[in-house]
């Protein structure tokens, strides 16, 4: 029991250290303004992205994370069940997928998108839907970091 308590204290100290370190980074506030993205996910995303200006657009940011699918086609036939490329930064991909899963639980827009993609896919439903949700999340992260702005919910959510 003593060892468990000491490990929990060490985890708490690490989390506090991460939060203290990233408080000085201006982009940190942009990411933590998204419901569901906490200090650990925000710090991990910022650490793996570095400067957002390195990437010309959100598609190259997603490709850096390995959130793309190769096209398999021959003539008129195009394969539908293609695996994720996984060529890219695996730590960045992990943070994006985990953060997107957390955002999905907090934002109705992402929850509806996840549900739609889950129902569209016949095989590997959760994996494919969560990766597609993460791909959508990349667009949000890219926009917020490029414009140095905080997350604001869509008007449809505000009007309700």
TrEMBL record:
It holds the Pfam family Transposase_20. This is IS110 family transposase. InterPro entries: Transpos_IS110 (IPR047650), Transposase_20 (IPR003346). It comes from Tetragenococcus koreensis. Residues 29-115 form the Transposase IS116/IS110/IS902 C-terminal domain.
